[in-house]
Amino acid sequence: MKKGYVIAIDGPAASGKSTTARMLARKLKYIYIDTGAMYRACALCALQRKIDLEDENSLEKMLQDIKIEIKYAEQGNRIYLNGDDVTARIREADITRLSSRIAVIGIVREKMVELQRKMGAQGGVIMDGRDIGTVVFPDADFKFFMTAGVKVRARRRWEEAVAKGEELNIKDVEKELIWRDQNDTNREHSPLRKADDAMEIDTTSLSVEEQVECLLNQIRERENA
Asked: What distance in Å separates the CA atoms of residue 203 and residue 56, rounded to the nearest whole number?
């Protein structure tokens, strides 16, 4: 398989895109860039500095010197914020909620898109998020849009939390996902939407392995066409 593709995977929360992207990257020996983690790191930075998200001047100053790094590790990428490993911290509930709020702010998205384009400039990358195929890399070699029913997505997210020892009510998880879907779809800057030339993959009844194989087959088919 040719090296150097830019592969964009978009979709709502818990649609399977991040897990699929990680596994696909391992199979292709590509770099996986978790853009959601970048927004989470931004949210954590704002929290640490006690920045009011309505205070654009303070946010702009924060973005001028923020340093976010994604480093490869055998067990999964590690996320560093200003030199500190924040991989576990950015997955906690307070950061999840705050990241959805900070992700709608124009200057934040502009900064993250700038960083994401630099990371993917050389190709050989798989990037997942909400606006990769529409904004970050509109000319990506392959674009996929992953979807699944909200109840299935809520169960996936709940099972992940339980596996980590967290105690969550599945109904609350479902409500949170519905809120995030509305927030992502209706935001002013780079809303969640399927790119016109993206292939939609409904993962409702697919295992992770089947999701990865589905994307791999699409890439192989186009290469062999």
From this structure: 38
Distance CA 204, CA 158 (A): 15
Domain ranges, ordered by start, for the chain: 6-224
Question: 24 with 30: CB under 8 angstroms?
Answer: yes
Strand ordering across the sheet containing 199-202? 31-34, 125-129, 6-10, 142-147, 199-202
CATH architecture of 6-224: 3-Layer(aba) Sandwich (3.40)
> Tokens 């939407």 correspond to what residue?
193
CA distances (Å), 3 to each of 21, 177, 211, in order? Answer: 16, 35, 21
Longest Cα–Cα distance in the chain: 54
pLDDT tens, the chain, 225 aa long: 666 899 999 999 999 999 999 999 999 989 899 999 999 999 999 999 999 999 999 999 999 999 999 887 777 789 999 999 999 999 998 999 999 899 989 999 999 999 999 999 989 999 999 999 999 999 999 999 999 999 999 999 999 889 988 888 999 999 999 999 998 999 888 899 999 999 999 999 999 999 999 999 999 998 887
Residues 6+ apart with CB under 8 A from 50: none
Please give the model's pTM, rounded to 2 decimal places: 0.87
